[in-house]
Amino acid sequence: TRLLNRRAFFYKSAEVMRENPDKKFAILVMDIANFKMLNEFCSHQAGDDILVYIADIYRDYWKRSLTVVSHFRADIFAMLTPFESKEDLIEIAMDIHNRIDAFKLPYKVLASVGICIASSPDMATSNMFDYASIAKQSIKGKFYAKYAFFDDKMYRNMLVEKQIENNIVNALESGQLQAFIQPNVDMRTKEIVGGEALVRWLHPTEGIISPGRFIPVLEKNIQIL
Questions:
Q1: ∠ CA(78), CA(83), CA(86), 5° rounding?
Q2: Which pLDDT value is given to residue 207?
Q3: Helix, strand, coil proportions of the chain in percent (round to 5)?
């Protein structure tokens, strides 16, 4: 695609932000839902063709002042851009989405764009990329959602997930995860005919943590299948 790689993107983006502290910057991260299926359904050549097409879209933006673009890997592209208002960023996200949508394929291509606005000129571009990726993941594959901004709620959820990841091994080793049996009762005879095993995290400071809070995090991070 002849765009910057990951390392060059982070270096150049940090340099641009550092040299222009009076400007507001954001990173937009884009990928395509089920890109592997596109390769299988339409052929790998079709997948390569659309990546080159997307690279040309990003190359158009590269011509803008203080804009940096990158092809990270596979279908993941990133852009650092200055902006005046969030509407400017929405306009870019929608332009990328619409131009990709116009690419002629028998397979519906759904592009998702995550956006992270820099909180300061020295904010780490790698963190901005990660936060934009989290925003992107929140809408990936949703037909009605084209873009999402990283916000405080996503940040809080990220911290909770990281805390669960950090504490789960100790919880297992110290017996904080315990199984409870919920009986199945035959309403005609009132006899117990079976049971359902339910796990609960008995946290020493937070009390009982339901599986609805920690199991999705472990599944997401492939700690359980």
A1: 90
A2: 83
A3: 45, 25, 30
Q: Which residue has the tokens 């950090």?
A: 166
Distance CA 40, CA 63 (A): 34
Query: What is the DSSP secondary-structure string of 76-127?
Result: EEEEEEEESSHHHHHHHHHHHHHHHHTS--SS---EEEEEEE-SSTTS-HHH
Q: How many CA atoms lie within 13 A of 10 on its CB side?
A: 11
* pTM exceeding the 0.85 threshold for the entire prediction: no
The vertex-15 CA angle with 5 and 87, nearest 5°, equals: 85
Chain-centre distance for alpha carbon 35: 15
Type of residue at 105: L
156, two tokens? 């809080």
pLDDT-flagged residues of the chain (< 50)? 225
State whether the Cα torsion 104-5-116-21 is positive or negative.
negative
Q: What is the pLDDT of residue 200?
A: 85
Helix count and strand count (H, E) for the chain? 7, 8
pLDDT the model gives residue 221? 66
